[in-house]
């Protein structure tokens, strides 16, 4: 991303309040008694104003939240303080970021698709670590934003991107998310090698 991208995201985050509740797919995975993920070190990619990072901190994780928008991160810091939890917010261009190898127990990627970052996500996880990845499908073009195919998953693409992981849960289709319908794919997987 360029400075123009950062400016665009800063303006967008300054105009919108944003949600306070965590993404429903993330909440579903962490709230289900089927998945007992011990709290550890977590990374929230494209964290925005920190709704998912704050939820992870409440769940006992040590959280690093990364986004290009300093405006969003400032709001995230304010929300974190109000929630009484700690999150390490870091401004970074995700197209240029270098993720530390074998550093995280959990990586969360919600509503963001940068295919070139997937290998970095995989490398950044410790063996046995988990990924929660949920974003829009190509079908979303029929409903509205986003429409750019570069930011939309093809059918079963998310499964293919993480075929070297143990897939513990997967969904793909039309779902009610954040008060409106959207076409999405969501994967919960574990690094096994």
Describe the secondary structure blueprint for this structure.
Layout: H1 3-15, H2 24-31, E1 41-45, H3 51-58, E2 62-67, H4 70-83, E3 87-91, E4 104-110, H5 118-124, E5 125-136, H6 157-161, E6 166-177, E7 180-190
Ends apart, CA distance between termini? 31 Å
Strand order of the largest sheet: 3-2-1-4-5-7-6
Class per helix and strand makeup: alpha/beta
Provide mean pLDDT, rounded: 92
State the shape: globular
In percent, how much strand structure appears in the residues? Answer: 25-35%
Profile the largest sheet.
Answer: 7 strands, mixed
pLDDT < 50 stretches: none
Radius of gyration using CA atoms only: 16 Å
Q: How many E-type strands?
A: 7
In percent, how helical is the residue content?
25-40%
Separate helix tally: 6
User: What are the secondary-structure elements, in order, as H or E?
Assistant: HHEHEHEEHEHEE
């Amino acid at each position: 991303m360029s400075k123009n991208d950062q400016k665009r995201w800063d303006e967008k985050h300054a105009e919108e309040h944003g949600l306070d509740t965590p993404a429903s797919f993330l909440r579903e995975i962490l709230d289900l008694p089927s998945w007992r993920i011990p709290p550890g070190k977590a990374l929230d990619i494209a964290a925005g104003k920190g709704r998912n990072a704050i939820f992870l901190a409440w769940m006992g994780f040590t959280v690093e939240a990364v986004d290009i928008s300093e405006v969003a991160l400032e709001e995230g810091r304010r929300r974190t303080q109000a929630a009484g939890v700690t999150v390490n917010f870091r401004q970074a261009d995700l197209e240029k970021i270098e993720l530390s190898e074998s550093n995280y127990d959990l990586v969360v990627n919600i509503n963001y698709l940068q295919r070139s970052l997937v290998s970095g996500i995989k490398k950044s996880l410790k063996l046995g670590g988990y990924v929660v990845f949920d974003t829009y499908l190509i079908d979303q073009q029929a409903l509205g934003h986003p429409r750019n195919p570069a930011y939309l998953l093809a059918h079963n693409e998310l499964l293919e991107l993480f075929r070297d992981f143990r897939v513990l849960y997967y969904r793909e289709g039309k779902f009610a998310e954040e008060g409106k319908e959207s076409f999405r794919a969501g994967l919960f997987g574990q690094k096994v090698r």
